[in-house]
Amino acid sequence: MPTGAIIAGGRSTRFGDADKSVAELAGVPMIRRVADRLAGADDPVPPGAARAAGGDPVVDDLVVNCRPDQREAIAEALEGYPLPVRWALDDEPDRGPLAGIRNACRAAPGEYALVVACDVPFVDPTFAETLLSDAADAGADAAIPRLDDRWFQTTQAVYRADATAAACDRALARGDGKILAAVEELSVVRVDDSTIRERTTEHTFTNVNTREEFEAAEARLAEHV
């Protein structure tokens, strides 16, 4: 299984004054919900409800990427987590998700890292598991979903840790902070829209950037729990 890598170093500017990674979503910090779904310890909310609640983990361990000032609150949110947790702190904060992915991949002990943003509380663990198979079976450096044949879901994807960290280093050294700048250097399995919809639903990519989206996520939880 891959290492789970949660990217949480953003400033949450659209969310208000609070750090959305530890905002309590129906009583549970959002980053904990994401982590728990990968460990099979969350509430049974689709997609992947059975695997998310009471199923086997889809990762061996967890790496958390965040700023140093976030660590204490996130560590409290993850207290008692059933899998080993490592930290990948941003030595240079505010360099964007590309630097976060680089740092998480550097810290990942496994060959592959399942990279997930901290604000996708309905991530489908079964779908995430298929991405590892896509990459490993092809001997590729990454497996990245492409929703609606337009948007690459680069923060819900599987990456070969060492190759990706090196590609991110090169992109950052060039002054290019776009994730796709690093992805272009990798061998990638592109998981197309029809395959995504055969395996899961678009709710796996639902992210929470604003208070309105947070309230909508709480309403969705209330429907199923």
TrEMBL record:
<dbReference type="InterPro" id="IPR029044">
    <property type="entry name" value="Nucleotide-diphossugar_trans"/>
</dbReference>
<dbReference type="GO" id="GO:0005525">
    <property type="term" value="F:GTP binding"/>
</dbReference>
<dbReference type="Pfam" id="PF12804">
    <property type="entry name" value="NTP_transf_3"/>
</dbReference>
<keyword id="KW-0808">Transferase</keyword>
<protein>
    <submittedName>
        <fullName>Molybdopterin-guanine dinucleotide biosynthesis protein A</fullName>
    </submittedName>
</protein>
<dbReference type="InterPro" id="IPR013482">
    <property type="entry name" value="Molybde_CF_guanTrfase"/>
</dbReference>
<dbReference type="InterPro" id="IPR025877">
    <property type="entry name" value="MobA-like_NTP_Trfase"/>
</dbReference>
<dbReference type="GO" id="GO:0016779">
    <property type="term" value="F:nucleotidyltransferase activity"/>
</dbReference>
<feature type="domain" description="MobA-like NTP transferase">
    <location>
        <begin position="4"/>
        <end position="181"/>
    </location>
</feature>
<keyword id="KW-0460">Magnesium</keyword>
<keyword id="KW-0963">Cytoplasm</keyword>
<dbReference type="GO" id="GO:0046872">
    <property type="term" value="F:metal ion binding"/>
</dbReference>
<dbReference type="GO" id="GO:0006777">
    <property type="term" value="P:Mo-molybdopterin cofactor biosynthetic process"/>
</dbReference>
<keyword id="KW-0547">Nucleotide-binding</keyword>
<keyword id="KW-0342">GTP-binding</keyword>
<keyword id="KW-0501">Molybdenum cofactor biosynthesis</keyword>
<keyword id="KW-0479">Metal-binding</keyword>
